[in-house]
């Protein structure tokens, strides 16, 4: 049975999740994380997409991507292919690095868009890896808080909803009571 085509149009924004095969690790050391970010940067230059937020967890990846001229399938194919080749070569492995096809959800509403950014940045807190989201340096959250520079992440798209104020965005992300229903909806979409 053929795969269903992914929805794409120029300017489409997606929440992408890629998982390690058999829930295995995608990143085994710091160089793996760094190399993945280098791939994102290289493919961004080739495919002209905007990376709105990201979080690299040990066994899965969250990306929030706005496409421009290339469809999401082309962008993700290149990212996952380059990383899988690197990972298999480095660790002398064969076979799939990623578990099946990546999950993607088109984001067509501003509230859902900022909710996805929040969800991505809180992922390490929800996984009990860190107590506070800004302690996790493998996400774009420190970039949003102006703690770290980046040519990779374009924060304006999300921060414009917060008057370009990092503190307002931080309050939105770290408030325990804000958008719990939206968080459940996003998690449900990913778990399907």
Tell me what you see in this structure.
With 192 residues, this protein is an alpha+beta fold. The chain has one domain (13-191): 2-Layer Sandwich (Alpha-Beta Plaits). The protein is 43% helix and 14% strand. It contains 7 helices and 4 strands; from the N terminus they run βαββαβααααα. The protein has helices spanning 30-47, 72-90, 110-126, 141-144, 156-159, 166-174, 180-191; strands spanning 13-19, 50-56, 60-66, 103-107. It has a 4-stranded antiparallel β-sheet with strand order 2-3-1-4. β2 and β3 (60-66) form a beta hairpin. α1 (30-47) packs antiparallel against α2 (72-90) and α3 (110-126) crosses α7. The mean pLDDT is 91.
The rounded Rg comes to 16 Å
Mean pLDDT: 91
Q: How many separate domains make up the residues?
A: 1
Instruction: Give the name of the CATH superfamily.
Output: Transposase IS200-like
Please report the distance between the alpha carbons of the first and last residues: 19 Å
| CATH uppermost class | Alpha Beta
The total of beta strands comes to: 4
GO molecular function, one term: transposase activity
GO biological process, one term: DNA transposition
Protein name: REP element-mobilizing transposase RayT
InterPro entries: Transposase_17 (IPR002686), Transposase_17_sf (IPR036515)
